[in-house]
Design brief:
This protein is an alpha+beta fold. The chain contains 3 helices and 10 strands; from the N terminus they run αββββββββαββα.
């Protein structure tokens, strides 16, 4: 029983370490954390229902106010979105958000939130806060990897017209024979 308890405790410690070390979204108290709008899908041309939002905190977990957060689409094969606004000041709670409208091309892509370029020194002072990425998907519309059907050459069109004409001529001839 003691061996099982140690194994479960070790396993939970390892899992907890992997969750917090692997990704900025995983609940670390310092940095930029996604608080809403991740992993959404919507039809092309429509607004995503949940705004993309982040929270910026210092090493004590306290909100950082008046920092510029920039949101930028990381296009993938033409799939993307329009964002408004693209640059936002954090509020008293350290929160910043933007809205996204799916573009005309279907596919998955990400939107990156990062501390604004003018705030680079502040980011370094906070320990080099890494950006976070939202996963979004546009449904329907034109697939990003769509390929056009091959065009028929003039020769192929002429042959097709002759073939259809012949089939029509034969069909008329067969009808006349039965009447």
């Amino acid at each position: 029983m003691q061996l099982v308890a140690r194994f479960v405790l070790s396993l939970s410690l390892v899992a907890g370490s992997l969750m917090t070390a692997g990704h900025a979204n995983a609940g670390s108290t310092t940095g930029l954390v996604i608080t809403g709008g991740d992993n959404q899908a919507v039809s092309t041309g429509n607004a995503f229902p949940i705004p993309l939002s982040v929270r910026l905190t210092d090493s004590s977990g306290d909100a950082i106010e008046n920092e510029t957060i920039e949101f930028a689409v990381q296009f993938n094969g033409g799939a993307g979105a329009e964002l408004a606004p693209t640059s936002v000041q954090t509020d008293a709670g350290g929160n910043a958000r933007t809205t996204a409208i799916a573009g005309a091309v279907a596919g998955s892509y990400s939107v990156r939130a990062s501390i604004g370029g003018g705030q680079k020194r502040r980011s370094e002072a906070l320990g080099g806060i890494p950006p976070v990425d939202f996963s979004l998907t546009n449904l329907g519309g034109t697939p990003a990897a769509a390929t056009a059907l091959p065009a028929l050459s003039t020769t192929a069109l002429i042959l097709l017209a002759l073939l259809l004409g012949f089939v029509g001529w034969r069909a008329r001839g067969m009808l006349r024979q039965h009447h």
